[in-house]
Amino acid sequence: MSARSDKIKSFNKTRLPSIVRLKYDAMLENAFRFYRGTCHLFYERIAALKTMPKSPIGWISGDLHLENFGSYKGNNKLVYFDLNDFDEAVKAPVLWEVLRLVTSIFIAFQTLEIDGEQAMNLAGLFLKSYGSTLIGGKAIDLDPRTAKGIIGDFLKRAERSSTDELLQKRTLRKGRKLQLDTRDERHFKLEKELKSELITHMEEWLSQNNDSPYHYRVKDVVYRLAGTGSLGQKRYLFLLKSTLKKDRYLLIDMKQAYPSSLSPFLSIAQPEWENEAERIVSIQKRMQHVSASLLSTSTFKGEDYVVQELQPVKDTLKFKLIREEYRKLYQVIDDMAMLTAASQLRSSGMDGTATKDELKTFALKDGWQKQILEVAIEQAALVCADFGAFQQDYRNGAYKMQSEKKKQPVL
């Protein structure tokens, strides 16, 4: 078994074994999916890399790649397209974020066997747009009025979508009772005791938390399967019903918060957050233009969770879409670069991070864009080699403890 597989198994040993098995299966799909599931391996390399250009310290989401942008409904009920995953968020060199994204471009295009020149063009465009946005010093946002192309389509769909449509996909009716559909491959049935404890907990959260929706009661809860990197963390989906309006429901996601996988590789002092969920939510609120609906935290049985409303539509640039629409990606990549820089400008100067002027001064320097391109190409090749070793180790039984039957209760 390779040293990388040892590190992958060690990283996942505190997660739910039955779901970690599914994570390893998902990572077998292709190098891009493997990259999404091994953020810790990427930053272990980057932290020790002498060829990495120096950059100011800022707030980063930590796991930025092509699929970690998306459309969502904000707490003001309007829709936006922005960075959407902050599990790994920390204070770090701003180019760590940029390198993670640019490397994902090269890995995606290599995996899809799209001309390497196209990947180079898109990576160069990202770096140019990112730098020019920092120089401009203005944190821009994207909404249905300003977005174009694929992202404009995402936002128009998000505007039209409704909770009723989401309920139809996620629930079933038994007599007069609506419940979450455990026939859905993303839903796992919970043991009776845990289910009862979760319902009691959410009822208390609804009654005590200022960020919670008013006049709702819990009707059902299941384990929810979603993502790649976070597979194995405890994650629950709640069905809530209004006590005031007939047939008014909400779906609430509650996801366990782990320490950032970047933490072991950072010597930069971080704020003393109350807990990991508070870190995630606080940084998300700093970096996003508008926070996601009902974004908050909760503590269940001594473990910390991020809580937010499940979105009717949460479009991201899915891998399949990259293959089908790569010629239309220039506008998307330009927007992603702008949003990456905007998130750093928006959160600049907080808790000792670089100011807007310092970010601008950095962006005006020569050489860093070329260096990032060179490092990203190198890192993409190393990730693909790691993926090959992972496939071989998997075939040789290194992950066999996670290769039993596919559907079973989580706890």
Explained architecture:
It is a single chain. The chain folds into 2 domains: 3-160 and 316-402, no CATH class; 163-309, no CATH class. Strand 5 and strand 6 form a beta hairpin. Helix content is 45%, strand content 16%. The protein has helices at residues 3-12, 17-27, 31-37, 39-47, 94-111, 116-136, 149-160, 163-170, 192-208, 276-287, 319-325, 329-346, 356-363, 368-395, and strands at residues 57-60, 69-73, 79-83, 90-93, 171-174, 177-180, 187-188, 216-224, 235-242, 249-256, 296-300, 303-309. Residues 402-407 have low confidence and may be disordered. It has a 6-stranded antiparallel beta sheet with strand order 7-8-9-10-12-11, sandwiched between helices. The two termini are 29 Å apart. By secondary structure, the chain is of the alpha+beta class.
List low-confidence stretches. Answer: 402-407
Average pLDDT over all residues: 92
Number of strands: 12
Count of individual helical segments: 14
Looking across the biggest beta sheet, what order are the strands in?
7-8-9-10-12-11
Query: Can you write the helix and strand succession as a string?
Result: HHHHEEEEHHHHEEEHEEEHEEHHHH
Amount of beta strand: 15-25%
Largest sheet: 6 strands, antiparallel
Helix content: 40-55%
C-alpha Rg (nearest Å): 21 Å
Terminal Cα span = 29 Å
Derived from helix and strand composition plus strand pairing, the structural class reads: alpha+beta
Q: What's the structural domain tally?
A: 2
General form: globular
